[in-house]
Amino acid sequence: MLNNFEKYLKTIYILIIILIIFIVPFLKTNNVEGNNPIQVQSEYGFIWPVENYTSISSYFGKRNAPTEFASTYHSGIDIPAPENTKVFAIDDAIVVFAGWGAGGGYTITLQLKNYPELKISYCHLSPIMFVSKDEEITKGKIIGTVGPRNVYGINDNPYSDENGNPTNGVTTGCHLHFTIKQNGEPVDPLQYYNYK
Fold first, then answer.
1. DSSP codes of every residue in 116-173
2. Each residue's pLDDT tens digit, 19-30
3. What is the 3-state secondary structure (H, E, C) of 27-61?
4. Which helix H or strand E contains 102, and what residues bound it?
5. How confident is the model at residue 138 (pLDDT cuts 50, 70, 90)?
6. Long-range contacts: 181-185, Cβ < 8 Å, 24+?
C-alpha cells in the first residue's frame, strides 16, 4: 500500500506527463518565431506567409469566378495548403483586425510597421487565432493556421458548399487567400517577392 508521500509523487508524475502531452505542443505552436523553411526571396525582407507551400491556385487580377459569390477580379493570391498549416507575419506589424471577415472567412489584417502604406490580409484561417487586435507582432510570428473549409456558429453566414454546409467565407477548399493593399488599393502580392 502506498503511503501519502508516494501517492503525492505519483500524482505529480501524472500531472507532468499530462503537461508534456497536452500543453507543451500548444506552447510550441504558439511561439513568437515559427519555422518557415520556404525561401521565396523578397527585396523587402518579407517572409513567405505559409509554411512549406508555395503553389498558387488563383493569381491576382481577372479570373473566372470559382464559386458563387466569388469575384471575377481576385484581390490577392490563393495558396492551397492543408488545414492547420502555419501562417506567418511577413514582417513586423500591428494587428488591425482579427475575426470573421464575411467573404474572407476568418481573417487577420496587419498594418506593417516598416511599410505603413501596406496592409496585409490573411483570409480563410482557423477561428483559433494566435493574435488579437492592436497587438504588436514581429516578423515570423505564427499568427494562425489555414482554416477548414466548413465552419459553424456564424449567425447569418450566407456562404455554403454544395451540400448546404456553411463555409469559411467564399471558398472551395483549404487555402490561404493573401492580399496586400497599398494605400487602400489591392496590389499583386507577388510584386513583393521574387516568385518563380
1. TTEEEEEESB-S--S--TT-EE-TT-EEEEB--SB----TT---B-TTS-BBSSS-SS
2. 455 444 444 344
3. HHHCCCCCCCCCCCCCCCCCCCCECCCCCCCECCE
4. none
5. very high
6. 181/118, 181/119, 181/120, 181/121, 182/117, 182/118, 183/117, 184/119
Note the pTM of the prediction, 2 decimals. Answer: 0.77
8 Å CB contact between 136 and 41: no
The percent helix, strand, coil of the chain (3-state, each to 5) is 15, 30, 55
Secondary structure of residue 69 in the 3-state scheme: coil
Tell me the C-alpha distance between 62 and 96, whole Å: 28
Closest CA to 173 of 126, 124, 127: 124
* 12: its cell numbers: 505529480
What is the C-alpha to C-alpha distance for residues 147 and 107, in angstroms, rounded to an integer?
10
Which of these, 44, 42, 36, lies nearest to 193 by C-alpha position? 42
Task: Tell me which H or E stretch contains 105.
Answer: none
CA dist 51 → 5, 34, 175 (Å): 47, 9, 12
**Sign of the C-alpha dihedral, residues 28, 33, 37, 40?**
positive
